[in-house]
Automatic annotation (TrEMBL):
Coiled coil: none annotated. One of its GO terms (cellular component) is eukaryotic 43S preinitiation complex. Component of the eukaryotic translation initiation factor 3 (eIF-3) complex, which is involved in protein synthesis of a specialized repertoire of mRNAs and, together with other initiation factors, stimulates binding of mRNA and methionyl-tRNAi to the 40S ribosome. The eIF-3 complex specifically targets and initiates translation of a subset of mRNAs involved in cell proliferation. It comes from Neolentinus lepideus HHB14362 ss-1. This is Eukaryotic translation initiation factor 3 subunit L.
Amino acid sequence: MARPGMPLWAADDEIDEDFQGVDLSMAIGNYGQNGLYDEVQSRIDEAALLAVQQQMQQQAAFAQIPDQVKRFIVHFHQAVLNNNLEEITVAYESGWNRLTEKFYSKTEWPEAEIIAPLVNDDPIFLILYRELYYRHVYSRLQPNIDDRFHSYENSCELFNYLLNSDEPVALELPEQWLWDIIDEFIYQFQSYCVWRSRVKSKSDEELILLQEASSQGVWSAYSVLNVLYSLIQKSKINEFIVSQQQGKSEEEIAEIVGEYGVRPLYRMLGYFSIIGLLRVHTMLGDFTLALKVMENVELNPKAQFTRVTACLVSTYYYVGFCYIMLRRYMDAVRGYLSILNFILRMRQYHTRSYQYDQINKTADRMYALFAVCNALAPSRIDDNILSTVKEKFGEQFTKMQRGEDGISAFEELFLYSCPKFISANPPPYDDPDALAVYVDDPPMEPAQRHLGLFLSDVRAQAPVPTLRSFLKLYTSLDATKLANFLDADEEEIVQQMMVMKQASRNVSRVGGEKGLLEGSIRPTSDLDFVIDENMLHMVESTVGRRYAGWFIRSTENAQRVLDTLKSSPLPGPGKSAAVQGASGATEAPRTGGPKVAWGGVKVA
């Protein structure tokens, strides 16, 4: 450490090394000739001068870093060197965010080159530091084009270090940080794709840079998918999951997954990469492939992704959305019921997490999607979830029950809760003519394209709520009479009945099926009917109320009330007792008279 009051960079040896590249004869000049100073100065090595100026600027920026931040960076670096997961976790989840709020809430953290002397120019730590630096820029500030390119370069350096090493790297990071690395990598890719598609707002310089970036594959869908698939292959995470499901011993698993797969760093990165692929394929609109990559991952409380709450919430969100786009509404409802109940139970613990706001936002989007699923496939659902849905989206929830009049509510909730879809192909920056056509007639936004596909299915089911309300009133009904009720002819009514029959049957998973794409056709409605010549016969299945859940919730509520009472302080003495204590007078105990019981005076 440097002496107090003395900057770390103020060492004579370092200054001498920095000036070794300067040509002293040129800097001093040749006074033995004609003494023309301007002619001599024109021969100064401009590159060396700029290097000195840059070093002086870095030294000035280093001096402005608060001492508390310097101590934190030194401590953080030492924890990473020692692979001390406990200290790394505290520094990552607490220290970084606390110092961000205190010093850098509206500005960037110091650049990696400035804090490099504090960590002895450790290249690995500087890569990790830049990962946090650019994540801060994306979340708190507005990234410019240089930030977008440099964040991609830093991600490439990090993944190349992990994937191209001859042996597993000696690095340990907390599971939360590993998930955030994958999650942020995908978020920056999505942000770049959205930004590059807005051609009209680009300057001429940005267009030239984007042309070069497109030719080099910067933030291309191929490069992102290649990283995720490479991490899965390197860690052999699918083989690890299958071996665990088959009940093999740790020795057998270690032999199968190899030296990389046994390391927690590679194993968790591979596991999180599977969830990352789910997200990327969903954003690209390939919902079947998104669920296909999850075929070995089980959605249960014992799965490894449940250790990181943000990963757990994200997994259920994207799996549920894929089910909605594949018209598997009951599977989506089951998933959302499970995760939303979990969030309700664990809400008091989430408030301690720095990702509390993000988890709540994702939960609100899942409530909206849950309302959409319930409108398209009505079923008996949890009262707590239903009351929360009506509280947050009560107006839209009611409108979606009105058939054609509720289309606008479906559109509103879909656009609010859907992922940010992206286009895999960039605009034609390398062809000025094609780019001009692109600007004049831009293609449809990916979100609008998926919205159109979703609404086409909703419009096909628009008559179902009205038909359902009539059929629930009868056990048998003549088709002609039903046509008169709805002011339509019999042929049109039969077509609507077939639409209702199709809407009430979806592919759904049954207990014991492994893959998320597996399932069989099952009825999703509590109302069924048959058409016998000109008569409709209806049957409604009623499900008895499940009292177990009600008793469990009531017991938990009573336990919370009891715990609150036990932890509350005892009430202080009343006013009359205080007055008596001040006067020093005490009343003699009563020895006779009527006895007072709870509820009144007992009269003899």
